[in-house]
Amino acid sequence: MTDLSHIRNFSIIAHIDHGKSTLADRLIHLCGGLSDREMQEQVLDSMDIERERGITIKSQTVRLDYTAKDGKTYQLNLMDTPGHVDFAYEVSRSLAACEGSLLVVDSTQGVEAQTLANVYQAIENNHEIIPVLNKADLPASEPERIQQQIEDVIGIDASGAVLVSAKTGLNCDEVLEAIVTTLPAPTGDRDAPLKALIVDSWYDPYLGVMILVRIVDGTMKRGMKVTFMNTQTEHQIDQVGCFRPKMEKLAELAPGEVGYFTAAIKSVADAAVGDTVTETKKPATTALAGFKPSTPVVWCGLFPVDAADFEDLRDALGKLHLNDASFHFEPESSAALGFGFRCGFLGLLHLEIIQERLEREYNLDLITTSPSVVYKLHMNSGDLQELHNPADMPDVTKIDFIEEPWIKATIMVPDEYLGPVLQLCTERRGEQIELTYVGARAMAVYRLPLNEIVFDFYDRLKSCSRGYASFDYEVDEYRESDLVKVSILVNAEPVDALAFIAHRGQSESRARQVCSRLKDLIPRQLFKIPIQGAIGGKVIARETISAMRKDVTAKCYGGDITRKKKLLEKQKAGKKKMRQFGKVEIPQSAFIAALKMGDD
To answer: Boundaries of each Tr-type G domain copy (predicted)?
Structure first.
């Protein structure tokens, strides 16, 4: 049993690619968590998709034993967190289970937008913060300038910042000493009733639901009967343990420790993240505060290509929701695509990752409808409705006004690329709040409609700044806006899966974009097919797919021209009749390609 004063719980926070996972590797190696043979790069990024993309998606925990210079052995519980804005919910949960943070800043690039967002989350959780300047071995490293920048931009003392190179291992032992000497020990009462916070949970095919907990008070042992305070379900614990980073069974988990337990839980809904676990015989009186529920900002429909996979998709979404509480789903149906789910995400990367995980881990073929944000409809009757799916928009005459979500975006960009970035924000109906300079870098704060960000804003921002701009946002408020629903009609039949909502000023160009894309995707028929974009009854864009034509005059050689005319007139009459009764089947591949509208 470890003395409370010898435990340190900390997370590693940083902007994307500043070296969090590499630093975690070094610390694991230094503490002997894994032997040289078992070590690999980014050892905590265990999912295939994380290793391929080189990003962290899930927070991972690992327990390390470190013997400090004073001769005492400390238990370090490390949490490696993601850097992307779409996984900010993962970061917030990890921070709630810790008392301190290592703030990793790239000493060649300095403070970025996501560095700020993560630091403010840590400060909100009353964390002690240790600045760590990474990549000190590179010739472009400027530690003095970056230390000053941390003090100017974030406002924390960086004079004691540790200069390291996570790749070569330079000074990484200094980081461990700083953790032991600077960070506070957790508090907790061993004799009080058990109180444990569920930080994460995931599904294991052999053990059922596995639950990661931070023990606040009391102890957790094998065989103990526990109650989940929110759902009021009872379970008997099969095993408790920790990750070093391999699973290791323990006799008990004591206050201040982070570890996992299993209890043969089959139902995914029972283990809600943020719930409090207590002992059934001697329950705690009050639950822990838990986490703020996450609010999805982007919604889209997920439909199985094969309708028979619907139940498998429901099952897979349930298991993934357990592992990632920040995405939401509800059933929906569509005339074109059958039964599926309307899912809410924290951003487009989040959507892409969930879709890829469903396809890889559960072998599902999916169609994703075009992403949209949540609009608030104020009806003439005084009711307020939330609109997740453009196809469900009620009659315009019943709506008084529509509000759309706006975000507050922080963009950090080198001075020479500022012009194109400001132009991009203005094009997207942005309003500048402030523009300040930190050395040679500008920090622009803008209010922007979320609808304009969802598609390709991030890609455009990266390309107009040659990849140097960094971007972070938070949802700010809802504002009244002149929005319209654009329907797409193929052969005069509306296709609900392609409908979208846009600002009136940009509706025409967006409709033209979709129509011209569909023109190239839908196969030609024996009759003309009109593709139209319409607002209500007014057509604002049109393309026509010309008919395939059989050469009916091939058998006429020589003779009078009237013979040919007669045959052509007969063909024309047949085509007219065919156009009245003809049905256009839009192939699934055309749907998928048309919905990737933001790629242009």
So the answer is: 5-187
